[in-house]
């Protein structure tokens, strides 16, 4: 992987991780177009540059993260479903991840949901730091939907938050907070499992990817919160549908898409 390829992938990850558009779908297309989809290091790179995006959330919301121990308890409760189900179904999830058709269909169906979801949920509580424990647990189960490739973790948790009475902004913020333990666990597990793919030669590339992802994610989060508050999900729904159709079109054309 070249420096330019690493920067491009990191930009894509930073832009898409917290938007409800599925970073997985974007990584499939971009890595394939650059001829990196069969590279073992690419797989660990795409997961572990999430450390940079995690850091962006902590920096942007540092006052929330270092204000109260109760905040961590609520995040832990919301994190539990993904931790337990992820461990129990890890092999099944990995098998799904290799099926690009599942990704494309998830993008299409998720896009349809996002087009109409603003009609379902309107208003709500603006406090994202003191979500009651039962509601945090329910949001955690919504996050588990993102174990299906192509189902955006961000979209699933935001919709889960709105279903529990949070406003769009508060639900999005809680989704960002919940991403920290969830993505840290997933990235750490991937690093431990596939550490053989790392070497002294490619470690600088991984560090560069995290740095770029960090900067881009900070910008993306600020944009998303402002846009979501003003305009809702509809444009992201249309975008997901286009992306899903693009992946299906590439598959129909015989393009080998692998994750």
From TrEMBL:
GO cellular component: plasma membrane
Membrane topology note: Multi-pass membrane protein
Residue ranges of coiled coil: none
Subcellular location per the Swiss-Prot or TrEMBL entry: Cell membrane
GO molecular function: undecaprenyl-diphosphatase activity
Top-level taxonomic group: Bacteria
EC number: 3.6.1.27
GO biological process per UniProt: cell wall organization; peptidoglycan biosynthetic process; regulation of cell shape; response to antibiotic
Entry keywords, A to Z: Antibiotic resistance, Cell membrane, Cell shape, Cell wall biogenesis/degradation, Hydrolase, Membrane, Peptidoglycan synthesis, Transmembrane, Transmembrane helix
Protein name from the UniProt record: Undecaprenyl-diphosphatase
Underlying gene: uppP
């Amino acid at each position: 992987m070249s420096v330019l390829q690493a920067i491009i992938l990191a930009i894509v990850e930073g832009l898409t991780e917290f938007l409800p558009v599925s970073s997985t779908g974007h990584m499939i297309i971009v890595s394939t177009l650059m001829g990196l989809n069969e590279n073992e290091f690419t797989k660990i790179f795409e997961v572990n540059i999430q450390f940079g995006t995690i850091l962006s959330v902590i920096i942007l919301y540092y006052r929330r993260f270092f204000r109260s121990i109760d905040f961590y308890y609520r995040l832990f409760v919301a994190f539990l479903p993904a931790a337990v189900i992820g461990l129990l179904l890890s092999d099944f999830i990995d098998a799904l991840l290799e099926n690009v058709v599942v990704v494309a269909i998830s993008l299409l169906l998720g896009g349809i949901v996002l087009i109409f979801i603003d009609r379902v949920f309107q208003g709500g509580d603006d406090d994202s730091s003191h979500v009651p424990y039962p509601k945090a647990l329910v949001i955690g189960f919504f996050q588990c939907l993102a174990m299906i490739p192509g189902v955006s973790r961000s979209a699933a948790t935001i919709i889960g938050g709105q279903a529990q009475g949070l406003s769009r902004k508060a639900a999005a913020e809680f989704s960002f907070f919940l991403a920290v333990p969830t993505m840290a666990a997933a990235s750490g597990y991937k690093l431990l499992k596939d550490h053989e793919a790392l070497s002294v030669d490619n470690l600088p590339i991984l560090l560069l990817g995290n740095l770029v992802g960090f900067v881009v994610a900070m910008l993306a989060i600020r944009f998303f919160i402002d846009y979501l508050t003003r305009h809702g999900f509809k444009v992201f729904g249309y975008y997901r549908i286009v992306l899903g159709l693009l992946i299906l079109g590439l598959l129909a054309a015989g393009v080998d898409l692998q994750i």
